[in-house]
Amino acid sequence: MSDQTRAEQARQKWQQGDLLAAYRADYASVEEQRDALGDRAGELRRAAFARFEEQGFPGRRDEEWRHTNIGVVRSTAYQGHQQPTTLTRDQIEPFLYRGCHNLVVVNGRVAPELSDSLASAGGARVSSLAYLDASLRPLVEERIATAAKFDNHPFVALNTALFRDGLVIDLPKEAVVEMPLHVLNLSAHASPDPQASYPRLLINAEAQSQATIIETYASLDDEPTLTCPVTEAFCAEGAVVRHYKVQKESLSAAHMATLHVEIQRDAQFSSQSISHGGGLVRNDSRAALRGSGSDATLNGLYVVAGDQIVDNHMYVEHEAPNATSHELFKGILSERAQSVFNGRIYVHRSAQKTDAKQTNRNLLLSDRAVANSNPQLEIFADDVRCTHGSTTGHLEEDALFYLRSRGIDADAATSLLTYAFASEFVELVEVEALRDDLQEFLFSRLPGGEIVRQAV
């Protein structure tokens, strides 16, 4: 039997199966909802769901997914659009960041009663997509689903077809938002069934504007969930956006996320991604540098153990000259954890004077941990400076011996060296509350965490 025949049989089985029927039921319920985005959203949803029906979920035969087993998603009938569980501000207090403007989303729906005021976000214009401010409607209709394309990505198609709510953050021209905006996405079960949520975030930074935006994903219970978020960001000339993402959901969660950003002349977009939750995590990030002098930084730290799987797929596209991009991803893996890093830098012929660097480093704390790394360069310009590299290994025996010889026990020595490996990323986090949160996690995860706490 040929591969083409097998693929056709798999497609027919998918289109006739119970799993697709569950998503069709969710889509039907979305179609019944009167959409604040009007006809534009209806057209997008129909096209996106048709594409999702056609392609289904990826499998190991798909080159971009061959190292990532998404069997739990392919075999679970998640129920979408459950009404948010009634929560109080006290219940979510541990997830909020001090010194930030906190915007709370529960099960994919904005929760104004738990959030700081949407109307007074320090100079930014913020609105729920389900109850869209009329002044922001033209912007959303113009921008939504234009950076994150769903043609060849099933999870982007799924989100575009099924999201009911989300946030738009608009930074007016020359606005400088001093206080970080924290978008807290919580999963809270409203029934015993596995549930799915589809958060959507649209960031629009006009010329010369500046802001720091944090996305956090967390669980309030250990029930199985699928979180399928899409974030689109647009940076106009001279805009500066500092973006952070923290993924710390329960180990029963599958997290399939997409970040797409477009960067114009002299604009800067930096993203620091932190992943230590979820049983199955996939982050697809894409940056398009479309203006001369634009700058993109995409960094990440993942700390995983047990049977966790984390997959970071990066694509940086240099379309204009004199632009720069930097990627640094570090992973700490223990027990049977697995990671994938697939990074590609694509330099167009017109993108002369490009400066791009891509690095992936993995620290294995167990002989059973596996790290797959595949940094790539595709360069069609002849006047560039582009580098890429990857290292995977264990702690150095000489360094461990040195610490042991000074009276430090094995756990503490391992913890000190592991923290030293992560500290380069910790120092990149400029938001104090977020940096403290990351440090506390590392102290709690490391076997000699208290000694590390005293040392730092």
- Principal-axis shape: globular
Number of strands: 22
Largest sheet: 12 strands, mixed
Give the distance, in angstroms, between the N- and C-terminal Cα atoms.
Answer: 60 Å
The percent range for strand residues is 35-45%
DSSP helix fraction: 25-40%
- Average predicted confidence as pLDDT: 91
Query: Total domains, how many?
Result: 2
Q: pLDDT below 50 for ≥5 consecutive residues: which ranges?
A: none
Structural class of the helices, strands and pairings? alpha/beta
Tally of DSSP helical segments: 11
Gyration radius from CA atoms, angstroms: 22 Å
Tell me about this structure.
Helix content is 25%, strand content 35%. It is an alpha/beta fold and 456 residues long. The chain folds into two domains: 3-290, no CATH class; 395-456, no CATH class. The strands form two sheets. Strands 1, 4, 5, 7, 8, 10, 11, 13, 15, 17, 19 and 21 form a twelve-stranded mixed β-sheet that branches. A ten-stranded mixed β-sheet has the order 3-2-6-9-12-14-16-18-20-22, with helices on one face. β2 (101-106) and β3 form a beta hairpin. The radius of gyration is 22 Å and the shape is globular. It starts with a helix and ends with a helix. The model has no long low-confidence stretch (mean pLDDT 91).
